[in-house]
Amino acid sequence: MYPVMIDGPRVWLREFDDGDLDATMAIVGDPEVTKTLSFETPTSEEQAAVLATHLDKARSKPRVEYYLAAVEQGTGELIGMVRLTLAWPRAGDLGYIVRRDRWGLGYATEIATAMLDFGYGRLRLHRVQASCEPDNPSSERVLRKLGFSFEGRLRDHTVRGGSFHDSLQYSLLAPEWRQPRPEAPPSPPDESNQATVAG
Ligand SMILES: CC(C)(COP(=O)(O)OP(=O)(O)OC[C@H]1O[C@@H](n2cnc3c(N)ncnc32)[C@H](O)[C@@H]1OP(=O)(O)O)[C@@H](O)C(=O)NCCC(=O)NCCS
């Protein structure tokens, strides 16, 4: 499906284009943003190459990656990015990033909500998974607010800065999406940080 445009209450999700390099660098060029992500802070040249790859993937058929820009409706600024990568069977992997000056305003929750509506609705997904590092409580909180369930701790799952990092794995199934639920409890660091994947 291309192009995709999704409306949220305060943001639009749209396809990236060639002119988005500086706006994306304002997000992922910030080391504070990438410090708990699975990639290093890119240079502008590296980010240009990443953007070009995503532009290609967006037009590929079948399309297996929906990597969309989140545009703040009030200002027209690109303030975040969200990715849903598809896998068999009817599964997706979710990731999101918000520009640092917009943290704490509910944007990640809103952006992910719009993408999940699209994933479970238009794409008919059954399972969406997402992961975050143990020392990323705001991302874990976003997942819990969305209704994701903790599945386990993936040991040495990513590499950054020359060392391996664990990930906390979460998932959400289609029948669980948009179900009424009690207010999400705050992330209990002990619960997720102590669990490990058996094996
Ligand atoms: C993680 C990230 C996407 C969150 O974006 P955001 O727009 O600030 O998220 P929201 O405002 O929707 O929700 C954040 C929640 O975390 C909570 N939070 C923030 N810091 C926290 C902390 N140190 N401990 C616990 N909760 C925290 C906020 O209070 C909020 O919860 P609330 O609505 O119950 O108050 C953003 O910080 C970011 O882009 N980080 C860098 C990239 C990243 O880590 N992406 C996720 C990859 S897994």
Write up this protein:
The protein has 199 residues and is an alpha+beta fold. It has helices spanning 21-28, 31-34, 44-58, 107-120, 137-146, 189-194; strands at residues 5-7, 11-15, 65-72, 78-87, 91-98, 127-132, 149-160, 163-173. Helices cover 29% and strands 32% of the residues. Strands 1-2-3-4-5-6-8-7 form an 8-stranded mixed β-sheet, with helices on both faces. The radius of gyration is 16 Å and the shape is globular. Residues 33, 36-37, 95-98, 103-109, 132, 136-139, 141-142, 187 line the site of coenzyme A.
Throw out a few tags for this protein.
eight-stranded mixed sheet, 6 helices, globular, alpha+beta, Aminopeptidase, 199 residues, binds coenzyme A
Fold blueprint:
Blueprint: E1 5-7, E2 11-15, H1 21-28, H2 31-34, H3 44-58, E3 65-72, E4 78-87, E5 91-98, H4 107-120, E6 127-132, H5 137-146, E7 149-160, E8 163-173, H6 189-194
Parallel strand pairs: 5-6
Antiparallel strand pairs: 1-2, 2-3, 3-4, 4-5, 6-8, 7-8
Region (Disordered): 176-199
Biased composition (Polar residues): 190-199
Protein name: GNAT family N-acetyltransferase
Tell me the β content: 25-35%
Helix/sheet category = alpha+beta
Mean pLDDT: 91
The span between the termini is: 38 Å
Number of domains: 1
Tell me the CATH architecture.
Answer: 3-Layer(aba) Sandwich
Q: What's the CATH topology label?
A: Aminopeptidase
User: Major sheet: size, sense and barrel closure?
Assistant: 8 strands, mixed
The residue ranges in which pLDDT falls below 50 over 5 or more consecutive positions are: 190-199
Ligand inventory: coenzyme A
